[in-house]
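User: Run a structure prediction on this.
Assistant: Running it now.
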Amino acid sequence: MVPLNLPPIDSSRLRQGESYIEIFDRLRHKHVVLTPEEWVRQHFVDYMIKEKQFPASLMANEIGLELNNTRRRCDTVVFDRTGNPMMIIEYKAPGIVISQKVFDQIVRYNMVLHARYLTISNGMTHYCCRIDYDTHTYTFLREIPDYTLCCAYGQNR
């Protein structure tokens, strides 16, 4: 897999499967097939936990939701301490350009979840925006805030 613009992960999480490589997903507590998108997900989740102090216990991968009578899955959802969705994270493989189509996808998911933060990463480039539901605006942030700051913003609403 290609090096990413994220801190490295522990290589002991990788193992050879029957005909493919697997990686241990610390949030799902199981090994999953290592795809380019999964490579990004696992690095990003580690980054959020180790660098941004997001509690692993308040994060979940592959969260199902229903949108327009269709089942969809968010790549990662971060919850606040009251159990409400605080951030949706969407991943793409490193070779995928983050386009308006990707932003449209995460915004559709947010029509159901009403998170305060939307984050997108292809492992090389990362975007995070904060939604202000009072003014119906959004702001792209220079960097992804740590968990405490994300929670503080939610309390000031």
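Residues 36-50 form the longest helix (15 residues).
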